[in-house]
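Let us practice reading a record.
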Amino acid sequence: MDVFIAGDDAQAKAGVAAFIESLGLRPMDTGPLPMARTLEHVCLLSLGLLARTIKHTNFSIGVSLPG
């Protein structure tokens, strides 16, 4: 499972990424702090789908990376 992170402090992001990896998850660095607004919108989309459309938690919003 991927965990998206955004921030301007490279050292802080490295610490958060290490913590995420220690949980068996994969950190995905989305870039500088302004990307956090986009990540919040993805969360709102997920909550909207959960509450109004699919009505269960067995889904994910995926990202395909080239390469």
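A brief commentary: Residues 31 and 38 are 11 Å apart (CA to CA).
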